[in-house]
């Protein structure tokens, strides 16, 4: 297997692991807990190519769907992907794809921020 193909498999696994770890860090401000999973998705989307960033989030959602405790608060299962906060989780796919598309190597600062 060539090095590029191997990295195409490793990067999404690393990205899903990073999202999982940062989603467990909770900052309590008032009654609403904030997690760092949104930061993780944005960081991955800014660093990885669009395909790898989207695969990272898709892998994270698949791991949660099969029941692994990867979502915030250690939750997992198909119920988390169909409950009241499921749109937030599904939105990560669009967020990762759009952000990584806008922040590629050839992007100027004007394109990224406008």
TrEMBL record:
Bilayer disposition of the protein: Multi-pass membrane protein
Location in the cell: Cell membrane
The keyword Hydrolase is annotated on this UniProt entry: no
Superkingdom of source: Bacteria
Keywords: Cell membrane, Membrane, Transmembrane, Transmembrane helix, Transport
Matches recorded under InterPro entries: BioY (IPR003784)
GO molecular function: biotin transmembrane transporter activity
Family that this chain belongs to: Belongs to the BioY family.
The protein's name in its UniProt record: BioY family protein
